[in-house]
Amino acid sequence: MRSVRIAIIGAGFSGLGMAIRLKQAGIDDFVLLERADDIGGTWRDNSYPGCAVDVQSQLYSFSFAPNPDWSQVYAPNTEIWDYIKRVAAEHDVDRHVLLNTELQGGTWDDTAARWRLETSNGAIDARYVVSAMGPLSNPALPDIPGLDNFTGTVFHSARWDHDHDLTGKQVGVIGTGSSAAQFVPEIQPSVAQLTVFQRTPHWTFPRMNRRITALERAAYRRFPVLQRLVRARQYYYRELIGTLLQKPRALEAIARLRMRAQVRDPQLRAKLTPDYRIGCKRVIVTDDFHPALTRANVEVVTEKILEVTPSGVRTADGAEHQLNTLILGTGFEVMPIADPLRGRGGDTLTERWQHGRSAYLGTTVAGFPNYFMLVGPNTGTGHTSVLLYAEPQIDYIIDAVRHAERQGAAVEVRQEAQDAYNADVRARLADTVWLTGGCHSWYLNEPGGSSVLWPGHTGRFQRALARFDHENYTLRNARTQNTAS
Questions:
Q1: Is the pLDDT of residue 480 over 50?
Q2: CATH hierarchy code of domain 141-202+282-330
Q3: Rounded Cα gap, residues 360 and 414, in angstroms
């Protein structure tokens, strides 16, 4: 059995950020468990045409590892993946990664105050566990009758079939979310016919992407403060958007005018105009999605899909749409089944969360000593970079580890502190557009509420994690099993 100080689950953006900050804090005894054959998480898995970040690249990168060489304001997936791998190599993280190693189970040993982990490559013993599995890592497959009977080519956008040439094909796309909004404009010019099956329309917001000039990149390298100023401007711009989304009428008016300019056909425009408040669902950042849907070889179908037939898709109006390729742009499972570790009481997080997901600061869970999460419940954002939430969590976790080791004990959040925190979060969510905007979305994943989103400005979350608040934790001594605050 391999014994380590810290085991990190997942080698995507958050997990690698955790590893880098541990190295910078002088902590070198850790491993990253990665189930795939390379690091990178979602940017390893998603390679569909047009795949890119929908937050400005300067924000969608580590504050402690700025990249002056982004080629565009919104970097394409290949650049982001290259950035992740380069930063990991520069900080000597690669040697800590165990690829093709999936966490299969594990238990908390209360006597030794350690986690006993079971992986696909053997047992690991760790004092601390940090789960960085990512909330959007498992593709969501639609539950449509007959999908397995389709005789053409079918694949999910997160598992793009690059060997399948779409040129001249009759292509169907199920879904009109963020991924489809990126790949539909890319494939539309080459296909013979593109049928887009839309369940719910989305509000869109201008992307205004552009190439970053060589002069700008040189200036960022020579004067890093300039890049920090650009990042700060983008940060406050995004926070302003977050504020406006809570009073959305002005943004809706702008979006409607933009829709009228991009979609001249009133019937198509009616199909594409949402009947819920902007911000209730994830707003799609795009300049070319709606224009692509106006092209002569594109049809937008809003009738309910009844079944997939061997040769196409049959809808509720009786029409059968003949296809030879079907692309599932149906997004991801939000907050996938939690990692299979059993806490101090013997239950898993899946069992603990049967009636609702909850954690303290989205980072720790009562009953799970020395266990931490990155991008856990209620740390999602509808307006800015998720890394602005992950980074304060990382620093908080390092402070927690240091406090635990100074005290020679395991740390576990108090149940009453967790309950009070979650009651406050839910109260602040109650009047937000996400719960009152009149739509059904993956934001609403709890009965009458959400365990996905953070209700407020990014700064409020960052301040909440600015220090490890040990007074809300119990210390558990491995030798005597006594507890203390």
A1: no
A2: 3.50.50.60
A3: 9
